[in-house]
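== Polypeptide entry ==
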Amino acid sequence: MEKGQLSRPRARPGGPAPLLLQTVHEHRPETGAVSILKARGTVDASNAVEFSEALAEHIAQADRADEHAVLDMTEVYLACAAAVRSVDRATGVLAFSGRALPVVQPRPHVREALRAAGLPGVRVHATIASALSALEARRRTGPAPGGTDW
């Protein structure tokens, strides 16, 4: 492979990477039950509503199951303003109740887009470990001020 070319698995000649979502349930001694929505691919105008609905449902299901909801955006690309608004719509119920969704490992452009948007229902973390540590601290002492643990 020549320098500067994408490897085969990453090249997408047909357009943006499809959006794939997977929920993983874990039990951690320090935080209890955790429900992680792992997102992969591109969120753009064509699937922003679908992403928002899936994220809102993930949050609602985690609340019903008494789990901590977490969004893993390690492999997500937000392609437009509609993508950022989709996260805002899905986390609005959390913001209204004074809570925030831990969003972990977003790519730099995603992290900056979320930070610039100032979404009250989102709290960005560099790693899953830092998100879980913040959940444990919040469980013991109440919500922390600010919107990022980066």
Notes: The longest strand covers residues 32-43.
